[in-house]
Specification:
Blueprint lengths: L9 H9 L5 H6 L5 H10 L2 H8 L5 H7 L14 H4 L10 E3 L4 E3 L2 H7 L29 E4 L6 H12 L6 E7 L2 H4 L3 H10 L4 E6 L9 H7 L1 H9 L3 E4 L2 E3 L1
Parallel strand pairs: 3-4, 3-6, 4-5
Antiparallel strand pairs: 1-2, 6-7
Amino acid sequence: RELEITLVTKPLLESIASRSGAADDLKARLAPGASVAMRELMKGSQLVSLLARYRPQFTAAELVATLRPLAPRMYSIASSQKRVGDEVHLTVALVEDEQEGRRVWGAASRHLSLLDATAGDRVPVFVERNERFRLPADASRDVVMIGPGTGVAPFRAFVQERAETGARGRNWLFFGARRFSCDFLYQLEWQEALRKGELTRIDLAFSRDTDERIYVQRRIREAGRELYAWLDGGAKLVEGAFLLT
């Protein structure tokens, strides 16, 4: 609840190396010019595996002092309160590594996936306001949204909000993921939104369904002429955590 035990940092590696008598390979990764090897170790390791591997001589107090404070995990709200009432929807991915054949979980994603509301499980949350990431005040303006993967979460909220408030502006979504069959988040909702006119257009890119890797940026280039016309007409372009005028 207080300290980060899954994210490996360079200072943590240096502290482990200085307290271990069998860390020659670790010291080599920390040497000048070995940044690639160091990043690979940081990405593929967690604290518990490093402690088991190198057996550093920490006292409990020294180990605690080495760890960084646990940072909050930030998720975009994926729903409009005008549609769902007293609920907050999140989009959380449990990613399976295709090469390793294993699931790769972040600390917060795994924690959320294991919660059991019927057993009374709870999790502390807070709202972090972002005044720059919002829909245009003028409801007649068009909006272009770029949200690959779980980055589509806030745009589900945007489309719901625009529909519930009767906004007259058009909504265009670019969405990308690995595979159509298992990664097309909110597929049925987008289809229903298109049918109702709540979503004007959706362009899709699934990078692992064809021999040629196709990503969202390619769909953007292909739609360049019409996209430019939307922007020239005053549309807002929203991507991830940024809103561009």
